[in-house]
Structure formats: structure tokens, C-alpha cells
Design goal:
mainly alpha; two-stranded antiparallel sheet; globular
């Protein structure tokens, strides 16, 4: 009797985890094909790489298409289904968790980079790109004020497509030697890209208003709840393309990169320092915080998140992975009122991996340039990296712009970003994976801490659960 049971168990496991297994195979296959093509067929033109990455680009566009309607409907319906005091308690727990984990990530990164000292090893070529050149002309005060401006969108429809950005205008025949950038002219422009921070703020206010309207707001509450579930159903269709899409995205990125051997020789220690930091933070720091809050180890939950983490690695986007994260947590039995609030907010403001990466990168460049830094500078880097990572989603081309802010703290020129740009795309995928894992585990932790509050409000909760229990069939 044991053999049939074993066979049935294996068959059941494969059926339940088929998409996860296929996605991991897609990641491995895409990496292998990219490396083989890179080393056996010579240089690839930009157009040829575009052809290779096309299926992956289509998959990424499908996921990104779901972000705005899912983000607005999820946050609005989640907050609208709770009373004001309860949503405040859940929000407070989530924000405290995000702040603690981000601060821990920055401190860990600084400890590693000051211990290993990767900037004292080897010589690094500069990879100056158009994006680096353009985004190096920014001032920290402008970036921080743009962050606040984007939080309060003046046109909510425009916020779904554009973000505000202050641009520095360089005078003709004038360089930084002639006049500091603070004296140059500037103008405000709308840059392509959803203003996620503005949409989150609007959704929180709208959800709070609907919750206070009680019966009057029921129709609007039901509309956003059903819209949220409709987006989840579409997500359940799109994710079956993830093994193919993720594979082609990774193949295209590997073909784009500079010589792998050269990058490893020049930036190997820096790469290993960031990777060690991300690993220790993801499976050490966050695990300890999770255990202290739930008295459980998180590794079983991480295994169930394999599909989500593989997609996060392939796409390199927390926001694009958000629909899959919500769907996965729903399958784990996490209260949807918590999931639909904490995940969209986390995907916007919680960037642990980015904070750690920027702290390491700034001090690595300072070490490489032989620029001495004091304990006060290290503290300033910690604060700036934390603030920059929180605001990353509200800034176009966030990685480069926020990195310039952190470099400015150490007194380094913005163009020094070019020293690390060669491995940025790969590290971006690893730090995105850690960001997504931190968001998911944070949601489980907040759900655990909020169980009593959720049980005290069964009527609204059951009504919300009834709405979102629409079956795909």
C-alpha cells in the first residue's frame, strides 16, 4: 500500500508545484542559453538582443499593465473594509516592520563593506552610459522635494502615467568648475512612469473615506473589491507565461552585459560583498525578526514563495511581481484585508535590498577613490540610504538617482556611479528578490500580530471575503 501512496504523493506534489518548477527551469535555461550564446557566437547587436528578449518583454508588459488597477483597488478595498482604528494599527505594524528591516539592511551592508574593504582590490573601468550621464545632474534637495510632490498628485489620472521630476538645465559653455549646480537654472517636467506614491496616498485616503461612510460607501467598496479580484483572476492567467517570459528576459540581459570574465575580475569582491549582505539579511536578519514576532521560522513560507521569488528575479521589479505575491499569500490563507494593504504599500516603500546595496556601493566607491570617511559620514550614509530606498518608487530611474544622493553624502562625484553600472542589472535582480521576500514575510508577520483585531471585526471581514471568493470557473 505504501508504494501507490508514495506515487500519488509525488504526483500531487508535481501538480501543485508545476508552475514553480517550470519557472525555476525557465530561469536556469535562460541563464544557460545566455551564457552559451555569449561565449560561442561573439558580440550581439542591440537589435538582435531585442528580438531575443521580445517574449520576455511582452510578459513584463502584461504584468505592469495590472499594477495600477490592482494597486488602487487592493489598497482602497482593504482599508475600506476595516474601521479607522484597526487600519491604523495594521498600518503602524507594517511601517515599523519596514523601518526596522531597512535600517538593519543598511547597518549590515556598512559592517560588511568596512570589514571586507572590496574597494581596495583591483582596478575598475568606468562604464559611462547615457542614463548615468543624464541622472548625474541632480541635487539631493530637489530629489527629496520631488518625492513629496509626487506623494500629493495634482491630477490622479495623470499620476497613472507620469511622475514629476525637477531637471537641472546646464547653461551653455558652463561647467561645474565655472558655477556650482545650485546656481544653474531648473524646470519641472512630467516623466513617463506611474506615480506609485501618489496613487498609494490617494488610495489610502479614498479607502479611509469609504470606511467612514459605512452603508453609504458600500456600493463603492464592493466595486473596488470586485475590481481587485478581477485583476487577480487575470493574474492567474498571465503567470502561466512566466517560465517562458522569465527565461527570455534573463537570456537577453546576459547577452547585453559586458565581458563576464572582465566584470568578475574587476568587481568580483564588490559583487560578493553585496551578495553576502543580501543573503545574510534575507535568511538571517529577517528570519530573526520574523521568529521574534511569530515564534516560527520563515523558511517553510519562503519555500512556498518560490514561484514569486523566481518571477521577481526574472523581471527585476517588485511592482510587476505584486499580483503574484498577493495571489500566493491568498493561497496560504493570509487575511486578504492585510494582504491587499501591506503588499502594495511594501512594494512601494520597502526596499531593504536597495538600501543595503546603496550603502555598500557608496562606501565601495569611496574606498576605491581612496577617500577617507569618518564615523559621522557612515551615519549620514545610513540615513541617506534608508531615506533614498523608501522613496525609490517615487523617482524615475530610481536606482541611479538615489545612488547619486548617497554618493553626495560621501562627497563623491555623481559620475562615479559608472564604476558599478556593469553589474547593476544582475545585483538589481537579487535585491529585488530580497525586497519581495521581505514584503511577503512582513505581511505574514503583520497578519499574525493582527489576528485579534481581525477577529473583533467579523462582519466586515466576512463580507469582504465573500466578495473576493469569486471562483475563476
Amino acid at each position: 500500500m505504501s508504494r501507490p501512496r508514495s506515487g500519488s504523493s509525488a504526483k500531487s506534489f508535481l501538480k501543485e508545484n508545476s508552475l514553480t518548477i517550470l519557472t525555476v527551469i525557465g530561469v536556469c535555461t535562460g541563464s544557460a542559453v545566455g551564457i552559451i550564446l555569449k561565449h560561442n557566437t561573439g558580440e550581439w547587436s542591440k537589435r538582435d538582443i531585442m528580438y531575443i528578449a521580445f517574449p520576455g518583454e511582452c510578459f513584463l508588459r502584461m504584468l505592469k499593465c495590472l499594477i495600477v488597477p490592482l494597486l488602487v483597488s487592493s489598497i482602497t478595498s482593504a482599508i475600506g473594509s476595516l474601521d479607522l482604528s484597526m487600519s491604523g494599527r495594521i498600518a503602524t505594524r507594517a511601517i515599523i516592520y519596514y523601518f526596522i528591516t531597512t535600517l538593519c539592511a543598511v547597518v549590515l551592508g556598512i559592517m560588511l563593506v568596512t570589514t571586507i574593504k572590496p574597494g581596495h582590490v583591483g582596478k575598475v573601468d568606468e562604464f559611462m552610459t547615457e542614463d548615468v550621464e543624464k541622472n548625474s545632474k541632480v541635487l539631493t534637495p530637489d530629489t527629496l522635494m520631488d518625492l513629496v510632490r509626487n506623494m500629493f498628485a495634482d491630477n490622479i489620472i495623470q499620476a497613472t502615467m507620469f511622475q514629476y521630476r525637477t531637471e537641472i538645465i546646464q547653461p551653455k559653455n558652463i561647467t561645474l568648475k565655472d558655477a556650482p549646480m545650485e546656481e544653474w537654472d531648473f524646470s519641472g517636467k512630467q516623466k513617463t512612469g506611474s506615480n506609485v506614491l501618489g496613487l498609494v496616498m490617494f488610495s489610502i485616503v479614498l479607502g479611509t473615506t469609504i470606511g467612514r461612510m459605512k452603508e453609504q460607501g458600500k456600493l463603492l467598496q464592493d466595486f473596488f473589491a470586485v475590481l481587485s479580484e478581477a485583476m487577480m483572476i487575470i493574474t492567474s492567467w498571465v503567470i502561466w507565461l512566466s517560465p517562458i517570459g522569465v527565461g527570455f528576459l534573463i537570456t537577453g540581459k546576459i547577452l547585453e552585459m559586458q565581458s563576464l570574465l572582465l566584470v568578475v575580475q574587476q568587481l568580483g569582491w564588490y559583487f560578493l560583498t553585496v551578495m553576502l549582505g543580501l543573503f545574510l539579511h534575507g535568511f538571517g536578519t529577517i528570519a530573526i525578526i520574523f521568529f521574534l514576532g511569530t515564534r516560527r521560522l520563515p523558511y517553510g513560507y519562503v519555500a512556498k514563495l518560490s514561484q514569486v521569488l523566481a518571477t521577481a528575479f526574472g523581471t527585476g521589479s517588485s511592482s510587476a511581481t505584486m499580483p503574484l505575491t498577493i495571489k500566493c499569500l491568498d493561497g496560504m490563507g493570509i487575511d486578504p484585508r492585510v494582504t491587499r494593504f501591506v503588499i502594495p504599500v511594501g512594494a512601494t516603500i520597502n526596499m531593504d535590498g536597495t538600501a543595503l546595496y546603496e550603502a555598500v556601493a557608496a562606501l565601495f566607491i569611496a574606498q576605491y577613490r581612496r577617500v577617507s570617511y569618518s564615523f559621522g559620514t557612515v551615519i549620514a550614509v545610513s540615513i541617506t540610504a534608508t531615506a533614498a530606498s523608501i522613496g525609490a518608487a517615487g523617482i524615475p530611474q530610481a536606482g541611479l538617482v538615489t545612488m547619486v544622493m548617497v554618493l553626495d553624502t560621501v562627497g563623491l562625484p555623481a559620475k562615479d556611479v559608472s564604476l558599478i553600472i556593469a553589474v547593476d542589472w544582475l545585483l538589481d535582480r537579487f535585491r529585488t528578490t530580497i525586497n519581495v521576500m521581505c514584503d511577503a514575510l512582513g505581511t505574514i508577520l503583520v497578519n499574525h500580530l493582527s489576528k485579534k483585531d481581525l477577529k473583533d471585526h467579523p462582519l466586515v471581514g466576512l463580507m469582504f471575503l465573500k466578495i473576493i471568493s469569486i471562483n475563476i470557473n
